[in-house]
Amino acid sequence: MTRDQFSFFHPFRIRYSEIDGQGVVFNAHYLTFYDTAITEYFRALGYDQYADAKKTGMDFHVVKSVVEYKAPIRFDAEIEVGARVARIGSSSMTFETAIFLKDSADLMATGEVVWVNTDQSTHRPAPITTAIRNLIAAREKHLAA
């Protein structure tokens, strides 16, 4: 995975509370970085997931998350987390994520997060709306129909 595969990045600076006894980012924080970057990705698109869920009764559930560690990230490092929608199915969406050192091609970690659009009254999968598909396709040209 390379930096040029992403058009969206969210910055972070590693805090002392995020490192472990080995002096590197504790593994569980990577998913927080990915989740935050995905939230900011949608904010940059102008999509308010929380408001939409309240209005429609539909929301996304995480059904899969993967982290692959490439190199240690240490205290006070400045990182940028890339997020992109790699695939949209009828009810699911797959995000690819990657962590790079700030202004660098140095790949520190990669990830995959899969969401399923879900009717909150039944907790069953539901189709992703055309409006959401179009919003994402405007950024992710490989998904345009």
UniProtKB/TrEMBL annotation:
Keyword Transcription regulation: no
SUPFAM superfamilies (alphabetical): Thioesterase/thiol ester dehydrase-isomerase
Keywords, ordered alphabetically: Hydrolase
EC number(s) reported in the record: 3.1.2.-
Signal peptide: none
Any Pfam family hit: 4HBT_2
Example GO molecular function: fatty acyl-CoA hydrolase activity
NCBIfam families per UniProt: YbgC/FadM family acyl-CoA thioesterase
Homology family: Belongs to the 4-hydroxybenzoyl-CoA thioesterase family.
Protein name: Acyl-CoA thioester hydrolase
UniProt lineage: Bacteria, Pseudomonadati, Pseudomonadota, Alphaproteobacteria, Hyphomicrobiales
